[in-house]
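ok posting inputs for the iron/sulfur cluster job
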Amino acid sequence: MPAPAASSANPKVGFVSLGCPKALVDSERILTQLRVEGYELVPSYDDADVVVVNTCGFIDSAVAESLDAIGEAMAENGKVIVTGCLGKREDVIRQAHPGVLSISGPQDYDSVLGAVHAALPPRHDPFIHLVPDTGIKLTPKHYAYLKISEGCNHRCSFCIIPSMRGDLVSRPVDEVLREAEKLTMGGVRELLVISQDTSAYGVDVRYAERQWRGRAYQTRMKALCEGLSELGVWTRLHYVYPYPHVDDIIPLMADGKLLPYLDIPFQHASPRILKLMKRPGAIDKTLQRIRRWREACPELTIRSTFIVGFPGETEAEFEELLDFLDEAQLDRVGAFAYSPVDGAKANDLPDPVDEAVKQERLARFMHRQAGISAARLEAKVGSVQRCLVDAIDGELAIARSMADAPEIDGVVQVQDGRAAGLRPGDFADITILGSDAHDLYGEAL
Ligand code: SF4
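and the output
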C-alpha cells in the first residue's frame, strides 16, 4: 500500500493492488483521484476506514489469490470494495464473500469512486492535499507504465480478456504523448508501454491524426514511438502481437530511438496448436522475421511467453516447440502449463493433456530455454552496457540494461555501485564481468 499522507483528519483508504501492469495503472488512476479528493492512503488494514481490492481474474490461481485478498481484507477490516477483472464475475465474489460493499469491473473508475464516497464521504482541502502532476505512481520514481489502449480485438481461445475488457479502445496519441511528457518532467527515465495488444494501437480509430508539439502524429504504434523518442528517455514496448508491421519499428530500435527490446508472446510454435489457439500460425515466417530483425538491429532482445500442454498438444508438437526455441534463440522466456480459464473457448477442445505430462513438458521447456538464456547472457561478458539504476543495496547498485524490463527480466548487479556514487534513476555505463542464468554482474568504474 502507498505511504500515508500528512493529515490524520481525513477519511482513510487502504488499497490492495493485484494483477498485471494494466491493473496497476487502473490502481494508480483510482489512487490519484482519491488523493485529489482528499482521501488519505494508509498502509495497514487497522488504519483504514475502508479497503479497496483491485483484483485479477486471468487464470484460476489469480482468482484464488484475489478471493484470498478479499477474505483477508474482510477479516482484518470488514469494509471492502472490490474492483478489477474478477469484478466481472460478481457471483463468484458474492458466493465467497457476501459482505463486500461493492463490486465493479476493470477500468470502472466511477463505480469504485462512487462506492468509496458512499462508504466514506470525502473531506477535501485543496491547500493541504497536493497531488503531483504525474498522479500517484506505484512504481519507483524513475520508471512508469504508459497504458495506450484498453481491450483487444483478438479472440485467442485460451483467453477471456476480451470478454472482460471488451474490444480495443485506443487512447488518442496526443493524450498519451502529453501524459508521457508529464511523466518525464516528473523524473521518469523509462516508459513501459502497455496494452493488451500494442501493435494494434489505433486500428479502432483508423489511425486518427492528432497534433503534439506542433507536429502531426498518427494514432499508430510507429508514430507513437517516434513521438516518445522526442522525450529523450528509454521507451520499452510490451505485449506486441506478432503482426508483420512490427517490422516497421525495428529501424527505430536500430537508430537508438526505442529500446531494442520486444516483448512478443508467441505462445506456441506448432501451426496446428497455434490455429487451435486462434493465433498467427506461420511459424517459418516468424523465424525469418526474427532473423531479419536481428540483422537490422543486432542488439535486439526478444522476450516471449509460451503455453505448454494446450489441449490436444502431442509429444511431436511439443518437440516442434523445443526446436523453435533452439532456432529462435530468444533471450528471455516465460512459460505456463495450460490451465483452463472459466469461460475460455479452449476448454471445449478435445484431448486435454494430463496434468503430470503438462508439468513434465513445462520442466523440459524451461530446462531447454535456461541453457539458451544463460548462453546469451554469457555472450555479453566483456561488453559495456548502458544501464538504469533501480536501487542501492549495501555496496551494490541494482541496475537494468536495455535488455531487462523491470519485474520480469534479470538485473545487472554493479559491485562498486555505491563507491561510484550511483543513485536510483541514474544512467551508467557498466562493464560486464560475469553472468548466470538470469543476471549480469559488472562494475561502474
Ligand atoms: S491478444 Fe492477448 S488479450 Fe487479446 S485475446 Fe489474445 S491473449 Fe487475450
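notes: The radius of gyration is 23 Å. The longest helix spans residues 355-378.
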